[in-house]
User: Fold this.
Amino acid sequence: MATRLPPIFTLLCVIFVSVLLGSAAKSKSSTGDSVLVILEPEKRAEYSIFLNGLEAKGYSVTLRAPKDEQPLLIEDGLPNFSHVAFFASDTKNFAKDITPQSLVQLLSLGTNLILTLGPKQNLLTSLAPEFSLLLPPPATPLVSFFPERADSPSVIPINAKSSSTPNDTFSVLTPGVGSVWFSGTPFALTPNPLLFPILRAPAESFAADLSDASGLVSDALVDASEKGGEGLWAGSSLAVVAGFQTLIGGGTGHGLDAGPGEDKQARVVWVGGPSLFSDEFANKKVVEKVKEERGLKVVENPSGNKQAALDIAGWAFQERGVLRIDSVSHRKVNQTGTPETYTTNDEIVYTVKISSYNAFSGKWVPYSDIKDLQLEFTMLDPHVRTALPAVRGQAGTYSTTFRAPDRHGVFRFVINHKRKGFTHLLYTTTVPVVPPRHDGYPRFLSAAWPYYAGAISTSVGFLVFCALYLAGEAKEDKRSKKE
Amino acid sequence: MSTASPLPQNFSQSTVANTASLLRILAFGLISAAAIASRLFAVINFESIIHEFDPWFNYRATRVLAAKGFYEFWNWFDPTAWYPLGRVVGGTVYPGLMATSGVIYNFLHYFNLPVDIRNICVLLAPGFSALTAWATYMFTKEMKDPSAGLLAAAFIGIVPGYISRSVAGSYDNEAIAIFLLMFTFYLWIAALKQGSALFGTLAAVFYFYMVAAWGGYAFITNMIPIHALVLLLMGRYSGRLYVAYCSWYAVGTLSSMQVPFVGFQPVRTSEHMGALGVFGLLQIVAFASLVRSHVSSKQFQNLLAISVVSLGVLGASAFVVLTYKGWIAPWTGRFYSLWDTGYAKKYIPIIASVSEHQPTAWPSFFMDLQLLIFLFPAGVIMCFRDLRDEHVFVIIYAVVASYFAGVMVRLMLTLTPVVCVSAAVAFSTLLDTYVDVKEPSVPEVSQNDSNPTPKKAASSGAVGSQAGTAAANAASSTISDIVNAAKSTSSRPKGIWGTDARLVILLNAIGMLVFFVFHCTWVTSNAYSSPSVVLASMNPDGSQHIIDDYREAYYWLRMNTPEDAIVMSWWDYGYQIAGMADRGTLVDNNTWNNTHIATVGKAMSSPEEVAYPILRKHDVDYVLVIFGGLLGYSGDDINKFLWMVRIAQGVWPDEIQEPNYFTPQGEYRVDDRASDAMRNSLMYKMSYYRFAELYGGGNAVDRVRNQHIPKTGPTLDILEEAFTTENWIVRIYKVRKEDSLGRDLKTANAFAQGKKRKRGKVGSRRRAIV
Assistant:
């Protein structure tokens, strides 16, 4: 029997292979194909590789200049596009409907965003804190003097291999994507669990002002370290690309909030500068010194920007790491059909089917690879919290059996699975747990023998008394007659 | 024998008896009609609607019973009440009321009379009031005679003290409980009089019905033992007492334990121990009297002394030990508050917060009983004159009920029947005396009868023809009677001569009765017939204006919220939300879980950021508050707010403190001098949210508290206004979801309104080494 590969691994391999082949393999998003790119139309040529790449994947790309009134982001309360890429990072003024508020509203409507920061302050500067991003002061781009190269210190090759993000089981960037050219603003990440770095800044880099630095030789880093706390804007704790998965509104589990909830999840990718997506960087070679037997050899490799840009867009546009709960069922052990209520101490079987989106086929396929899925049975507090393991032989099915607590009340089955890079899974089902019916208690209790004995002895005693009384009366009569 | 006016002579005895019987039936029919009719004001002035709070639950439960049958009702677990704890309704309810309605419903439907269950519920209380009148008639008949009984029936039929709990639509346990109370007492008296096990068992059966119908059954549980005990102490032990009490107690207790809500309480709680103790005592006394009949009196005396002492010690210590061990539940808070009126306020604010648990104000005695309250003592004294076993009962009942009625407003209800009975005895004695046309013709007739029957005593009552008030007259007659008996001299014959003297008294009495009827009608129509779900006010032209905000809000909830939405409100409105809006509630009028109520109190009296986790934890979708500031409706939540604070303080004394909600001067204010805790509390914010905007920059005045509300009103971050009724009486807020970006709602709101965020600490510019 062939070893079964985990689907996600297969998926990654397929993506990798297909991209390597440079084929026009369609790879669509799970939430829609329309992309709005906010960009001056004359600059489209600068991003043609990326945008053509998107179109080749099957997206329909619309361009909108920052000051154009049309097409609107949101019309009649509904988003006009499934995804919005914000490349106009140099622009200061925008059309009326492009505001930090409208961008957040887009997210709550389920539209995915790619936001690229510019060197100057614009609306994104005020939006970033809402995502728990800390931006350095304006016009302080990321600077690194390593490795030695001919380019400006603010144009940095970042080796994507060094960090697999967000975690070991899932990486936004294709493994082996190579070095990625970056130029722009880094940002620090606060410990917001929704936020994770996709591409970290190199350890040797820092954020600094280069604008009038030509003649000055001030030791900025020493300065900074003396001030204390200022060292924040340096090193690999900074990120240049970060992903953010919005929260499902965390409904109450009632009405429209029951089940998976009506809220749509959206993804945001913050990128330090739009140039990461540019043709210039995509075509720029990375010069690397490779150790060989006879000293160092200079190798020119193609940059990983083209692949990285599509990877980033692929994650942001919900092609990958997209999970959903197909169905949930619960029943009593040895019974079929979902009961309206459970009785205390019932054995309950809870089953959930989860599938993941396959961007190549555009279909949802069963997904069994979640290792740490948990089920909670809560009333105010979780009364039961148990692992929900995958069922062998049934793809995408997770099931567990547990005993309902000896406590009546309105309980909720809660699946709350939030992992970085993946869609959050939240599913609540409300079910009352009731005390046994009046005839549901055991009829005969061995502990009640004293009472049974009491009742029986009293009855017997009464019968004996009656018998004796009746018999005795007859005797007495006789006696009295004798007397 | 001379008479004041000529009497018709040529009637046979049976004709008189038949006519009297016919008249009694006619009178009784009219009394029933009056009793039912006077309770229909609520239906005529408003509509056929269930009133107030508790009736809404009873109505809802009855609908379940009618729709699903008794067994489903018994096992009914209501997941929407006390969310998320749920309520085991079958085991926490007195099912008598619902069962009664269910039986009537099924009975009518069996005969193909498709009567709506709501109409049965609405009209149940008036229907049972006619039965109460009948039971009171039977009871009073045992005390005096049928004519007193008719008077008592008429009194109880229209007296406001009973109408207050039994108008049409007031579908509460008390609606049938007073009938059961009086009828059980009647059966007890009948059993005692005849020493009948049949009547004793019947009393037990109706006692069981009472237990199934009302928590106030404990009144019977203690009244009958006290009566028996007093009779024992008076040396009136008899076989009749033994048979009546034992048959009542044994059958009644066993059957009362069949009610799920009562369960083993009759043998385990202190309230029921009296009945058990008297039962045991009766056995001992019965045994003692058996022994006495077999041994000599000297031996018996020794035996008695020893056994009484040892048994007393044994019994008391057993009681203490059992209580200490927890086998007998200690007294409940409600019970303590009966003896110490300040107890509840100190220790259990939840009990004190109920308006009907407040001590009674004296005007309400007059309001509820009018002339009867003056006749009542006279009637009790009449009972002393005769002091048969049943009169002892009335005296004890009068004393006990008077005390309880003074302690708790709602216990006025238990006082009312005995007041009616006593007053009827007094009044009918008066009428007997003055209607009787016989004149005291023979001066030689001796009056020093050692054991006068009531009729004789009454007819030979008043001295001369001084006509005071009826009560004073009756009382003085008794005193003079005693005095005369003591002197045993009668220089002058006593009695009433002439028609004029009689007419003065009789017209006076009838006049008082007429006033009584007017008073009752007025009180009933004005004070006790408001459904309190619908409010009425007067237009300038005198026409009635209906304020229907409650139903507007509940209907909105019903139509616009998800079916399983949870609404948080103060517990007063729990039953109404469940009944009218059909939505789940956190707390309701069945106040069994103090902590849960305190949780709601805490959420209401805390600032938003404290309240939000509480709301989320309890899955609250909507919050409902009652606000009367616009209309001047004083029963609103701000006025109840201090109770929420107190109850919350009882559970979280570190977080909620009552003094924080007052100004430093100790005033309870909602204007710009309100304390910070007050102004930040969720309740304040929900009440006054956008209130000042209504006045368009003018002076916003809270008409209940007569205070000016600051122009910049409170802001709400965790809630959004969902609905406010026409007169702003009910305001409903929706709980916001958590922010999708994981921010706290205050920040998210500030951002959505475009406010600049305070810049975090960001480093200064830095130059690079090049």
